[in-house]
Structure formats: structure tokens, C-alpha cells
């Protein structure tokens, strides 16, 4: 009998302990005291307790919960989303959390305004703008949620949109619109490139025409200058030529052949054989 009582006492003592793990904080519950929940907070570790006592343990690290939220956008389109909120208890106010709210603080305090605010904020945006406005939507929901639970021993870190199930018909139409916009942008770019190429060709053609004009103008001026030089040379030569100089140059040439024509005193050539010469009477 004694042995049985020993075993029972050992098992009872073994069960009279609470282990608080890393990332948790405990609030001791003493059934025989008033108030039953003690102000002292217990960090991680093993704590012996009597069977009628216990610990209310709270995780104090950041936690995340994801909620499916069915929303209606500003253009009256139904969209299914998944939104995540990251939160934790205020470690310094765990006794208040334990006495006023309890361990179901997410379901009782955070979740209801979180889902409602997500629906409201999504409803302010058009279906086509949800992806673009996602950061704004997340920040608006987080700020509104902090305000909604203000004064409670809880902290909200952030809100994130995990998924938006866009309407397939609308998505297809948006994709087609984006594709058309991309095509128009490409065509506009090609036109701009063609305009630039045309400008380059016009510039090159003008440069070539200018070069040809300058070349022709230069050649014309050269011809004029050459002609003027030749005219001046002819004038200078004409001034220096004389009959005596030409005769001199004629006799100065070794290949020149000479023909002598007798000239009378009047400077006229004597023509022989034109009339019979008078008979000369020989002397005596």
C-alpha cells in the first residue's frame, strides 16, 4: 500500500510543472489567491507548481494569419483575395491581455476589423488597378487596423496581399489592351526611328549638294581666273610683239626656209616677165 501511494505521489509531483518555451511568456495563475492572475511575468524555463495552480502562456514573437477575403471592387467586380496580417501581443502588457482579453485575442479582437477593413479598402479601387495599388492598399489596411485596436495590448506589424484572383474575362481584356498599347508604343518607336533616319539622309544629301555646289563654284572660279590670266598674257604678248621681232624669230629658227623677193624703191616687189625689157644697145 505504501508503494502505491509513493507511485501516485511521484506521478502527481511530475505533473506539477510547466515548461515555458523560447518566444513565450507566462502569467501565473494561483487559484487560492486574489486576484488569481499574478502580475509577475515568467520568461522561458521550467516552473514547478501545485496541481491547483497554472500558467497562462502567450507567444510574444511576431505571428501571421492569412484570411480569405471576398471583395467587390469599385467597378462592381467580384474578386477573391488572400490577405495576411502580422501581429504580436505587447509583452509589457501581458497581464492586461490575460485578464481582459485572453488567449483568443486574434479571433476576438484582430480578425473582425481586419477582414472588414480589407473589404472596405479593396472596394475603393478599380479591378484593373489592384495590382498597381497593392502597396497602397496594404498600408491603408494596416494603418486602419492599428487605429481600430488602438489602446489594446496588441501590436500590428504589417498587412500583405498574398493573392488576388482576377476575373479571367477581365484579365484577358486587360492583357489584350496592354498588348495593343505595347504594339502602338513599338510602332511609335519605329516611326521615330524612321524620322531620325530620314533626317540623317536629308542632312547627308544637303551636305553632298553643298559640297558639289562648292566644288562647281570653285571650278568655275578657277576657269574664270585661268581665262583672265590667259587674256592678260595675250595682252602682254601683243604689247611686246613687233615686225622686227617677228622677223628676227623667223630667221632665228634653223628650220626656216628663205625666199628672197626683190623689191623696188617703192617697196613693191619687182615682177619679172610681165613686160619685155627695152633693148639695150651695146656700146660702140
Question: How is this structure best summarized?
Answer:
48% of the residues lie in helices and 21% in strands.
Beta-strand proportion:
15-25%
As a percent range, the share of helical residues equals 40-55%
Shape: rod-shaped
How is the CATH topology of the domain at 63-166 named? Tetrahydropterin Synthase, Chain A
CATH homologous superfamily heading of the domain at 63-166: Band 7 domain
Report the sheet with the most strands, covering strand number, pairing sense and barrel closure: 3 strands, antiparallel
Q: What is the averaged pLDDT score?
A: 82
What is the number of strand segments? 8
Structural class: alpha+beta
Description of the structure:
With 284 residues, this protein is of the alpha+beta class. Among the domains are: 2-59, no CATH class; 63-166, 2-Layer Sandwich (Tetrahydropterin Synthase, Chain A), CATH 3.30.479. The protein has helices at residues 2-14, 94-100, 105-122, 134-148, 168-240, 243-252; strands at residues 17-20, 24-29, 37-42, 45-48, 54-59, 63-72, 78-89, 154-165. Strands 3-2-5 form a 3-stranded antiparallel beta sheet, with helices on one face. β2 and β3 (37-42) form a beta hairpin. α3 packs across α4 (134-148).
Topology:
Layout: H1 2-14, E1 17-20, E2 24-29, E3 37-42, E4 45-48, E5 54-59, E6 63-72, E7 78-89, H2 94-100, H3 105-122, H4 134-148, E8 154-165, H5 168-240, H6 243-252
Antiparallel strand pairs: 1-4, 2-3, 2-5, 6-7, 7-8
Task: From the structure above, extract its key features.
284 residues, single chain, three-stranded antiparallel β-sheet, 21% strand, Tetrahydropterin Synthase, Chain A, alpha+beta
